[in-house]
């Protein structure tokens, strides 16, 4: 029978390894807030047809974050 702190440390290390292997999944609504904010402001002010470069930049950011866009 081991020391209780040894058991706690072992469980903690195991839990930490699991978190590293399966990081908390990022939601699409929370990804790339910088490009999303600029893109949305442009669309509101100038219309979607005039913001293609910002829309593409946001799509690329989303792809880089692991989303299939």
TrEMBL record:
Cu cation binds at residues 29-30. Residues 1-26 are annotated as: Disordered. Keywords: Acetylation, Chaperone, Copper, Cytoplasm, Disulfide bond, Metal-binding, Mitochondrion. The keyword Lipid biosynthesis does not apply. One of its GO terms (cellular component) is mitochondrial intermembrane space. Gene3D superfamilies: CytochromE C oxidase copper chaperone (1.10.287.1130). InterPro entries: Cys_alpha_HP_mot_SF, Cyt_c_oxidase_Cu-chaperone. One of its GO terms (biological process) is mitochondrial respiratory chain complex IV assembly. It is found in: Cytoplasm; Mitochondrion intermembrane space. Its main location: cytoplasm. GO terms for molecular function: copper chaperone activity; copper ion binding. Copper metallochaperone essential for the assembly of the mitochondrial respiratory chain complex IV (CIV), also known as cytochrome c oxidase. Binds two copper ions and delivers them to the metallochaperone SCO1 which transports the copper ions to the Cu(A) site on the cytochrome c oxidase subunit II (MT-CO2/COX2). Interacts with COA1. Interacts with the chaperone CHCHD4; this is important for correct folding and the formation of disulfide bonds that stabilize the structure. Belongs to the COX17 family. This is Cytochrome c oxidase copper chaperone. It comes from Acanthoscelides obtectus. The lineage of its organism: Eukaryota, Metazoa, Ecdysozoa, Arthropoda, Hexapoda.
């Amino acid at each position: 029978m081991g020391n209780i702190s040894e058991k706690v440390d072992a469980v903690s290390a195991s839990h930490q390894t699991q978190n590293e292997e399966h990081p908390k999944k990022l939601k699409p609504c929370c990804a790339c807030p910088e490009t999303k904010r600029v893109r949305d402001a442009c669309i509101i002010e100038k219309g979607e047809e005039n913001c293609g470069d910002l829309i593409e930049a946001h799509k690329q950011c989303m792809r880089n974050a692991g989303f299939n866009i």
